[in-house]
Amino acid sequence: MKHFRGILILIHLIAISIAALPAPIRTERALWAEPTMQFELAQLSERLGRWGIEVPASELEDRLWSVSERYAELNERARAPFGPYYTLAGTGQAWAMFAGADHFPCTVAIDVRVHGAWMPVYETGSPAHRWNKTMFEHLAFRYMFFLYDLPGFQDRNDGLLELIARDAARDFPSAEAVRLRYVERPIPSPKQVRDGSLPPPTERLVYTRELTHDVPSGP
Amino acid sequence: MIRKFARRVAAFWNGWVTFFGRREPGTALALFRIAVGLCVAAEIGGTVLCGVSDAVWLDARFGGYRSLEPNWLVAWLGGAAPGTVKSLIGVCLAASAALALGWHARLAAFVCLQAFVALVTLNRDVVSSYTLLMSNALWLLVLARSAQTLSLDCRRRTGAWTDATPVPAWPRYLAGFQVLLMYFSSGLHKVGSDWPLGGGLSAIYYTLQQPAWQRFGMEWLAWIYPLTQAATLVSWVWELAAPVWLVALYFDATPERDSRARRLFRRLRMKFVFVTLGIAFHLQILIFMRVGNFSFISLAYYLCLLRPKGDGPRSSTGTQASPTGLATDAAKDCCRASRSA
């Protein structure tokens, strides 16, 4: 019995250790066009240049993509035998936490159009525009807002806006439309903050939807 | 040569089996069970109370904002429909309460695990890494005898809330390994240009400026930037030093042995250093960032780093254990005094 237990513990440790190995997310190449990724590649290319290894960022991207694909395939093969164990026992591991800070994050703004004029109702971090803040500031929604400005996820915004439109139609009876804006706010370097020269925000994505107010039917 | 190698493997295996065969009072595991039950309840309950559950866990066919890929359980139950999601929420909350109270704890942990995993993996866009810490903890609690003490089961069985009967210690060791694995893996992932391996020391500064995660404006960090650089270096080294911390935990779990390395670790108070830095790290996250229950569930694992007094081989009869299993020396002295009286 004690040897059997020892073997099972060993298998468990091997399974979770393999799962915890860094694994690049197998994704579309288009995601690498995202500003933070391009920033990272440019930084790496520059650093290699300082060490005497001249690789242009575009070539570095091609090479890293190829290595990443091969490694991801190998990683998937190593995990495969333990797949059911991860699924049924909830022993999966994914610890890419704060692996790289986003230098060009977006905040979200939601506006409603009333009598032809747009009126802000929610904005990330704004003390003035706090509509539905309990929901929008829940971690799940912050994940969505964090993710859905990225190239591979932008198609999710139509459904998300429909969801927001339902609540907006209920809470703003005179509103005609709702819009969701992703505003890119580059993070200033410490020097920029100290000098007071903050980089200006730019609107990255805008989604608009007309509202339909369901009139309760009479008896 | 082969015989020598075989002897070494056999010795290693015997050591392995003996180490994982150790027993100890179940107090640390009981505290871990209570904390995990509360964390899971807070995670699922918080999602419901904030009105987010329908928005993120319903499939587009039933009013959600996108098509979901349910796990085997939800698929078997007919998909992410309102009735299914509400039932899973109810089951998960009830099971997490039963787990925290220690009522049929292993069954409660298993039911809670399945309902929890079914819910949190419904929408992979919004799944947090730390929910994996919760599911891993629940699995260890399925395997552990965590309701031996400080539980309704204990009360029903013995008539008291505490019971010093030793339980297998290996689930506690695995919990310690799990939390170290998280740190080590997290450290290996940190290759971005803001981390030391990428040539920078600005990661903590930039991470704390993320509008999605920061609790309040953090521009003031620009004036203490060198401190954030030092914090970046310390947290990165601390994470990658996980194998050293693992050795420290092993030495701490086997205090009856002695060696030069053990004496060095003891003198440098390595376990204390690890735990102190870890608690500081999680408190910093709790104060400055809004990342759900990450710090709470991580700190719940730290309860498994508590070494119950009287563990190890001597405790196999339970004679060395105090009623709570975490007695201080003073309490032990009191027991001795009352016995002699």
Shape estimate of chain A: extended
Spatially, the strands of the biggest sheet of chain B line up as 1-2
Helix content of chain B: 55-70%
- Beta-strand portion of chain B reads under 5%
**Total number of distinct structural domains of chain B:** 2
Number of DSSP-assigned strands of chain B: 2
Give the structural class of chain A.
alpha+beta
Rg measurement of chain A, Å: 23 Å
SSE order of chain B, one letter for each helix or strand = HEHHHHHHHEHHHHHHHH
What is the oligomeric state here? heterodimer
In percent, how much strand structure appears in the residues of chain A?
A: 15-25%
- The DSSP helix count of chain A reads 8
Terminus-to-terminus distance of chain B? 60 Å
SS summary, helix count of chain B: 16
Terminal Cα span of chain A: 72 Å
**H/E element string of chain A?**
HHHHEEHHHEHE
The 3D shape of chain B can be described as: globular
- Counting structural domains of chain A, the number is 2
Radius of gyration over C-alpha positions of chain B, nearest whole angstrom: 23 Å
Describe this structure as you would to a colleague.
- The complex is a heterodimer of chains A (219) and B (341).
- With 219 residues, chain A is an alpha+beta fold.
- Chain A contains 8 helices and 4 strands.
- Chain A has helices at residues 2-20, 35-50, 57-79, 83-89, 133-136, 139-147, 157-171, 190-195; strands spanning 106-114, 117-123, 175-184, 202-210.
- In chain A, α2 crosses α3 (57-79).
- The longest helix of chain A has 23 residues, at 57-79.
- Chain B contains 16 helices and 2 strands.
- Chain B has a two-stranded antiparallel ribbon with strand order 1-2.
- Chain B is globular, with a radius of gyration of 23 Å.
- The model of chain B is unreliable at 313-341 (pLDDT under 50).
- The chains are: A alpha+beta (219), B mainly alpha (341).
- The interface between A and B is large, with 66 and 70 residues.
